[in-house]
Fold each of these.
Amino acid sequence: MGRTLQIKRGTTAKLAEYAGPFGEPTFDTDRGIIVIQNETAGGIPQGVITQADLDEQTAALGNEIWVNAQNIQQLKLT
């Protein structure tokens, strides 16, 4: 008999609140991607990166870097 691997899963909003142990895989049911937990809320999304993902991460960095799906447009050095 085969073994079953069950992975924690949840919506994007629920996973944004979850801070799992380092290296734990979770599944984002809204985006259909794996998120690797790193002991901070939200973890690290894997797979396809959208412009919205890039914009969100840029905002999280205090808008210090602007990116698009093709290249880095501008970098502020402080």
Amino acid sequence: MTKAGALSSSQVVEMSARLPQVVLKEDVNWTNITFKGRGFAWVNHSENRAMIKARHDERAALLATAPAVYEAGWATGHH
């Protein structure tokens, strides 16, 4: 079940596939979405969740803009 206003995991993958230079790497339960060889999103189909790589300021903006859709994840401190 998706939150109001959220895309399903399948929709995220479908939209990403239309972007230039994006490559999808499929696994049993996951799709890794890469741009120019670098991962920027990971979609877990069984949980209908996506993790998006973002800087701390980008994450804060996403959370402030749509708190019903996004939730804070973990951060490694690497840039």
Amino acid sequence: MKVQAGLVLDDQVGVVTGAASGLGFAIAEALAEAGAMVVLTDVDADGLERAVDAIRAGGGAAEAAVCDVGDRQALRGCI
């Protein structure tokens, strides 16, 4: 996924749900490429680890938070 040309997100934090794969991962990767520190959330811990590793390997800043965003209490603990 390409981010708008010239978009700079340095010193910004993005939180992306469903980020272990697919569209969520693509969004997280694009935000990281634009300079944001990205917090990836998903219920898939192994997938999150792979996604964070991929973003870091590309020079991005990323952290993982295993979280079910459908569970309000879990979401509050995640953020």
